[in-house]
Structures are given as C-alpha cells and as structure tokens.
Design a protein that fits this description.
The chain is an alpha/beta fold. The protein has twelve helices and 16 strands. The chain binds threonylcarbamoyladenylate and magnesium ion.
C-alpha cells in the first residue's frame, strides 16, 4: 500500500517563509526519483509526484486509495511553463494569471499530449495551478518538472491543513513530508473551467467568485455548486467528499434562528443517546455553554479568512472527540463563505436543515 519505497516516511521541517535550500534539494531529488513528497501549499497540503512520469503518478492513486477516475491538478512554478502541459492557452489566461497567480486558482485547459492520461483520468483537459506558498514554489522550481498533486489525505477524508493530518492519513505510504506548519488559506483552490462557452466555477475555493467576476465580467457556477446535486461535472466534486466520520448536518438561515434550531436538535439527539458536536462561530459560543456538547468555533462569522483557515482543523477535532453527530452552521455565500458552504455541504452529504424565519 506504500508508494513502493520506504515504509519509513521521512519528515523534514522547513521554514514556510524562507525554505532552506538543502531541504528543498532533498525533496526535489525524491520527486525526480519518481517517489512521493507531501508538501504545504497556501491552501492545503498536496501529495506530489512528477506529473510527466506515469509510474510516479500511479503511486499517488495507490497511497491515497483514490479511484483513477478522479483527475489531478498539475502544479507549475511559472506561467512560462504552461505550454509544457497545456496544448492551447486562451487569451483570457493572461489576465487571470496576472490577477491570481501565484495563488489558489486552478484553471481547466486543453491538455498537452505529453501529460499522461492517468493524470487527467483520460480527459482531454488538464487542471493547472501556480501555488504561492514559498515551499511549493521552491520545490517545483528545484524539481524542474511539473508536479501533480491532489490534497494529501486518504480519498474521501478531509483535506490536510497541518502536517499531523498528513501523517495521520499517509504515514508509511509515502517517501517524505515537508513540515511547513499550518497552511494559510485552509480550503482548496477554486477550480475554474475555461473549456466551453463561459468560464465556469467547478469548485469554489480560495479565490472568490466576486474577484473572478471583477476580472472576467461574468462567471458561471456549475450546477453541482449551486444545488449540491449528485451529477458531478468535476469528478472529484461528488457529494460525500471531505467527510468526517460523524454524521454532519448543516443549518442554514438567519443566524439567531439557526442557533436556536441547533440547540433544540442537540438536546433531542442527546436524549436519544447521541454524542453531539457543534461547529459554530465565536458569537454563538455563549448559546451552547449550558449544553453537554463538544464545541468548535471557527472564529467570528464576519472574519471569513479565519473561518476558512480553521474549518478543517475544527472538523477533525470534532471527529477526534468521538462525537456521533456534528451540527454545523454556515457562513453565507459571499467571498470565502461560498467555499466554506460547499465543503460543509459535502461533509454533510447534502443533509441540510433550512431554518425558516417567522417574519
Ligand atoms: O488547493 C488545491 O487545489 C489542492 C492543492 C494541493 O493544490 N489540491 C486539490 O487537489 O485540492 P484534489 O485532487 O484534492 O482536487 C482537485 C479537483 C478535483 O475536484 C478534480 O475533480 C478537479 O480538481 N479536476 C482536476 N482535473 C480536472 C479536469 N481536467 N477537469 C475538471 N476537473 C478537474
Ligand atoms: Mg482532495
């Protein structure tokens, strides 16, 4: 089940702002040897392999137990390298690159024949991004090859935002982990398709819909994002993804009514013998003080950067607390709120309570 190398996963500390060249050289050598390195990006930890080496990429799918129908993102260190993996670069890419790269935006473009079919799950398109995290940047540049990297978790689990999350899922299955501490954004990149009539967001993420609209004029949302339905456009975006072990329910609506509904539901579940955890905002803390529930706050609800940054670590913490049910509030659809809602909906496999306002 490992990547075909040591069962001993080497964990190397690295300065997230100024990565030590010696550490990066060691990791790049592992990539060039066709083995797997988990590394921090600004969004979540990625599990990297040489994207042009099909055997190395096979190891990603094996280590993650990921079905080969789910395509990978190819990471580059500079826009000049786009032509190595993309067969045709539309004009609009220049403006998007100027505004958002390096950063948490992934573009779906026509694939270059050089990219192994395994990377793209046989599709004629390839997803590419240029990450801004200094460690990711340095690793890709030093490797000298494009790096295919999904999130560094077992398939179906929550994406890792801490090195300890990567170890929990993949220790003994991969050659190396670069420990650069917590990631910065906390949710994955926005996946934007430039195939077809209109630019379409397949997965909301670190770059908001509003900022894309500023550059593109108009941007569509794929139906899976709008409705959270099961017919996935982006294969990895099916529901039941990013899921903790506990049963998650998302509460939507007016914040004070949501608070009330979550309190009532918590009490009922506890009476039935369930162990309940709540995922809330700082301003909700008081309302749950008197209840025997595990509490995780992701920050003040109007600070969406903090909310996104803490989302996965909080879900993992509730799982570790051994709760059977997680009740989560949402944070609207503005800015990073859309990505947060999308991930909560997936964690909940679409289980949503729309709290009706009386007024
Ligand atoms: O922030 C991120 O994007 C992180 C870091 C490591 O870069 N990566 C990540 O990769 O989240 P992964 O494999 O967990 O998710 C990639 C998403 C999936 O939803 C996949 O279906 C979609 O991108 N994707 C990849 N290639 C695609 C393609 N050719 N067409 C449509 N969707 C694609
Ligand atoms: Mg993933």
């Amino acid at each position: 089940m490992n990547d075909g190398s040591d069962l001993n996963t080497i964990c190397l500390r690295v300065d997230p702002r100024q990565p030590e060249p010696g550490v990066i050289r060691r990791a790049a050598a592992v990539i060039r040897a066709g083995r797997l390195v988990a590394f921090p990006t600004e969004t979540v930890y990625g599990l990297g392999a040489n994207a042009l080496d099909a055997r190395a990429v096979t190891r990603i799918f094996r280590a993650k137990e990921r079905p080969s129908s789910d395509p990978l993102i190819v990471h580059l260190s500079a826009v000049e390298d786009l032509e190595r993996v993309v067969s045709e670069v539309p004009e609009i890419v220049e403006r998007l690159a100027l505004a958002f790269w390096p950063g948490p935006l992934t573009l779906v473009l026509p694939k270059h024949p050089r990219v192994p079919d395994l990377v793209t799950a046989g599709k004629p398109t390839v997803a590419v991004r240029i990450p801004s995290h200094p460690v990711a940047q340095a690793l890709i540049a030093e490797s000298g090859v494009p790096i295919a990297a999904p999130s560094a978790n077992r398939f179906g689990q929550i994406s890792p935002t801490r090195p300890s999350h990567v170890l929990a899922d993949l220790e003994g299955r991969i050659a190396m982990i670069l420990d650069g501490g917590p990631t910065f954004v906390g949710v994955e990149s926005t996946v934007l398709s430039l195939i077809g009539e209109r630019p379409t967001i397949l997965r909301p993420g670190g770059v908001s819909r509003e900022s894309l609209t500023e550059v593109l004029g108009e941007v569509a949302l794929s139906s899976t994002v709008v409705r959270g339905d099961e017919a996935a456009v982006s294969p990895g975006t099916h529901l039941k993804h990013y899921a903790p072990d506990a049963e998650v329910t998302v509460y939507r609506g007016d914040p004070s009514e949501v608070q009330q509904a979550m309190r009532v539901a918590s009490r009922r579940l506890i009476q039935q013998g369930a162990r309940v955890g709540v995922l809330i905002a700082d301003e909700d803390l008081q309302a749950f003080q008197d209840l025997p529930v595990a509490v995780q706050s992701v920050g003040p609800s109007d600070d969406l950067e903090t909310v996104a940054q803490r989302l996965y670590v909080s879900l993992r913490a509730l799982d570790r607390a051994g709760v059977s049910h997680i009740l989560a509030r949402e944070f609207g659809t503005r800015g990073l709120g859309l990505a947060v809602r999308d991930r909560l909906m997936r964690a909940a496999s679409g289980r949503v309570v729309d709290v009706q306002s009386d007024s």
